[in-house]
Amino acid sequence: MTLRRSNQFAIPESEIAISAVRAQGPGGQNVNKASTAVHLRFDIRASSLPDLYKERLLHLDDHRISKTGVVVIKARQYRSLAQNREAALMRLHELLQRVTVTQRKRTATRPTRSSQNRRIERKKRRSRVKALRGKVTRS
After folding, report:
1. Is this prediction's pTM over 0.70?
2. CATH code at position 77
3. Domain total of the chain
């Protein structure tokens, strides 16, 4: 099985290490006898990803990416190993999707004259309201 990211690239199964571990928390006897939680490991530097995507991944501020450049995803929300495995792969896919989308460069624009006038009018109106809150002087 390969993790496919449209036509841009595909990650071979050999680059993704998935291991089954014991799940934590409630679940009765099933927790004690079955290893249903999944740890997915993906080494960014040793992968076949394009260099641009590797750099973007390594610069992401994500707690799942270690300092050594290994993505560690823990999936344990389901009671079955297969569902947790699928959930971990989906999370890896979403992480890669965040990196492959390039942000459009923002074009600097100036506010229109009418929007500037509306802003000034709001400020004047607010100023008058606050001025009326002052102490009342007797004459």
Report:
1. no
2. 3.30.160.20
3. 1
